[in-house]
Amino acid sequence: MNHSIVTEFLILGLTKRPELQGILFIVFLFIYLVAFLGNLLIVIAIIYNTTLHTPMYVLLLALAIVDIICTTTIIPKMLSSMLTSSNTISYGGCMSQLFFFTWSLGAEMVLFTTMAYDRYVAICFPLHYSTIMNYYMCVALLSIVMAIAVTNSWVHTGLILRLTFCGPNTINHFFCEIPPLLALSCSSVKANEVMLYVADITLAVGDFTLTCISYGFIIAAILRIRTAAGKKKAFSTCSSHLIVVSLYYSPVIYTYIRPASSYTFERDKVVAALYTLVTPTLNPIVYSFRNKEMQAGIRRVFSFLKH
């Protein structure tokens, strides 16, 4: 039963300096538009083009949808606060934001691992790819992604709902994330910290390790390619994927593996921006726009819109 006295929270945002609000508004509006429109274009291109109805692109479609949900959960509210100087969010609104953000966080991590596995099968077992990554396997993998993401989100949001918030109600962050909420609780957060640690080890560290193992096998297979051009192309793809994955996992592991007493929110806000804003913006560029089949699919969408 929730006994919180607090009915709304005050979100401080990225900075307390009013002279920077205008610049930050323009920067984050641009980031949101690039992330939203880029991922939306991927969704439309994959749905519209039947040639892209393969496991690789279905997983890319899922990643694009997750990125749209992640950025839309956080940035519009942040932009609204910058524009109106109304930094309050209701208790229910805060819990909703927390739920959808935590869901997208879990889904993205498991999707990265699933996509790495798909590439591992494609490169290491090309003759058996269509047999292994068939329709049923694709549905099963996406079901696992959804089940893990929803479970992760329900557990953490449920544990936050059990806490008592009796004041202060100022969140030193730019959205409702778990660490700053734990710092505001006037009841014990031990269970929350234990579950955060468990989730960080199993989801973040576990998925990152599995992703790296998949790419390790991929790189070993690439080294057996005889042509220098083939090696260069494959390495280019793998390296860009690994950079984005590392950009995502490193700050997530750093943020969630520590106890509430050790949080330094001014620094943590910058760290959080990497996995909430930067990665969803980079994903379309790294995973899709550099791909020739995806480029052809996007051109067909624009060609259809012209007519």
From TrEMBL:
Subcellular localization: Cell membrane
Which InterPro entries does the protein's record reference? GPCR_Rhodpsn, GPCR_Rhodpsn_7TM, Olfact_rcpt, Olfactory_GPCR
Q: Where exactly are the transmembrane stretches of this chain?
A: 20-48, 55-75, 95-114, 135-155, 201-223, 235-257, 269-289
Q: Which UniProt keywords apply?
A: Cell membrane, G-protein coupled receptor, Membrane, Olfaction, Receptor, Sensory transduction, Transducer, Transmembrane, Transmembrane helix
**Record keyword Protein biosynthesis present:** no
Name the principal localization, coarsely classed. Answer: membrane
The organism that produces this protein has a lineage beginning with: Eukaryota, Metazoa, Chordata, Craniata, Vertebrata
GO MF term list: G protein-coupled receptor activity; olfactory receptor activity
- Membrane topology of the entry: Multi-pass membrane protein
> Which gene name does the record give?
LOC105985219
Q: What does this protein do?
A: Possible taste receptor.
Gene Ontology cellular-component annotations: plasma membrane
What residue stretches are annotated with the G-protein coupled receptors family 1 profile domain?
A: 38-287
Write down what this protein is called: Olfactory receptor 13G1
Instruction: State the CDD domains in the record.
Output: 7tmA_OR13-like
Tree of life domain: Eukaryota
